[in-house]
Design brief:
Length: 289
C-alpha cells in the first residue's frame, strides 16, 4: 500500500529531484506542476499544505516532474504561458512567448493612439503562437490583424489562441513565407515581427530548455541571424502606408547590425527600446511620407 503524502511533502521531494537535475526555480516549478496535476492554483497548495495528495495525482505529478528533469520547458509540460495578462496555449510547434516581446505590444498601442488610428491594419509576420496578433486584437478593438506563418502547426496553435481569447473574428490567418502573400500595395499601418534571430554560431550557447526543445526554425535562420531583417526591411515598404511603422524584436547584440541595414531614403532613423535589463530589444522605424 502506497504511503500517504501531504502536499508539502510531495513538493519537498519533487523540488529535491529538480534541484539534483540542475533545474532552476525548483520549488516554483514543482508547485506549478503539482497545481497543474491537481487542477488548482499555487495559492491552493500553500493554504492546504497538509492535505494528502491522492495516489493517482501523485503518479501524474511524478510523470510531469520526470519530464522537467530532462529539460523540457515548464510551458510545454503545462501547455500554457501568460503573456500581457492573457493565457496562451503553447506546444513544441511554437516559440514560448517571452516578457520582452510585450514591448512590441506597448509600442504599437502607443503609436496607434498617438496617430489616432481608429482602425489600424497590422501584419504580424512569423506569428508563431499568435501572442502578438491576439494581444493586439484585444488591445486595439478596431484593428484588423493578419497573422502570417509558414508553419501550418504554428498557425493551428495561433488560431486556437485567438478562439481562446475571443479575437478570432478579427484575425486572418495566412500560411505564407513572410509577406509574399500580400499584394505590393500600401495597405498596412504596422508590420510587426519577432523573427528567428539567433545566429547559428550562438545556438550551442543557448539554455538547454531552449536549444533542445523549442522549434529550431523559430530560433535561428541558420546563418548570421539577420536574414529575416534584411527581407522585411526590403519587402515591408511596398505594403506599408506612408507613415506606417515596422516594429521588430532584436537579439541582445544585434541593434547596431540591424541599424546598418536601414535605407534612410525609405525609413526614418531607427529608434531602439531597451528591455528591463537595459538591453536594446525592440527596433522601430517609420516609412517616410
Amino acid at each position: 500500500m502506497t504511503q500517504s503524502m501531504t502536499i508539502a511533502e510531495t513538493l519537498r521531494r519533487a523540488s529535491q529531484r529538480l534541484r539534483e537535475a540542475s533545474v532552476p526555480n525548483d520549488l516554483m516549478d514543482a508547485q506549478t506542476l503539482l497545481a497543474s496535476a491537481m487542477g488548482c492554483d499555487r495559492t491552493y497548495l500553500i493554504v492546504n499544505f497538509n492535505q494528502a495528495v491522492p495516489g493517482e495525482i501523485r503518479d501524474k505529478f511524478d510523470s510531469l516532474i520526470s519530464r522537467r528533469t530532462l529539460g523540457e520547458p515548464l510551458q510545454y509540460i503545462t501547455g500554457h504561458q501568460e503573456f500581457f495578462g492573457l493565457d496562451f496555449m503553447v506546444t513544441p510547434d511554437v516559440l514560448i512567448p517571452r516578457p520582452e516581446t510585450e514591448i512590441i505590444i506597448e509600442e504599437t498601442i502607443r503609436i496607434a493612439q498617438q496617430m489616432k488610428l481608429a482602425n489600424p491594419v497590422v501584419v504580424d509576420a512569423v506569428s508563431g503562437s499568435g501572442c502578438i496578433a491576439v494581444t493586439l486584437a484585444r488591445e486595439l478593438s478596431g484593428s484588423t490583424i493578419f497573422a502570417v506563418d509558414l508553419s501550418f502547426p504554428a498557425l493551428g496553435v495561433a488560431r486556437r489562441n485567438a478562439i481562446h481569447n475571443s479575437t478570432d473574428d478579427r484575425i486572418h490567418f495566412i500560411a505564407a513565407d513572410m509577406l509574399e502573400a500580400f499584394i505590393e500595395e500600401p495597405f498596412a499601418d504596422f508590420i510587426i515581427s519577432n523573427p528567428p534571430y539567433v545566429p547559428e554560431r550562438e545556438m550551442p550557447e543557448l539554455q538547454r530548455e531552449v536549444r533542445e526543445w523549442e522549434p529550431r526554425t523559430a530560433l535561428t535562420d541558420g546563418k548570421d541571424g539577420l536574414s529575416f531583417y534584411r527581407r522585411l526591411l526590403v519587402e515591408s515598404p511596398r505594403r506599408l502606408k506612408p507613415g506606417g511603422h515596422f516594429i521588430c524584436e532584436l537579439g541582445y547584440s544585434q541593434s547596431a547590425a540591424v541599424a546598418q541595414l536601414i535605407d534612410r531614403e525609405i525609413w526614418s532613423e531607427p529608434r531602439l527600446i531597451d528591455d528591463l535589463q537595459g538591453i536594446p530589444r525592440t527596433f522601430v522605424v517609420q516609412k517616410r511620407v
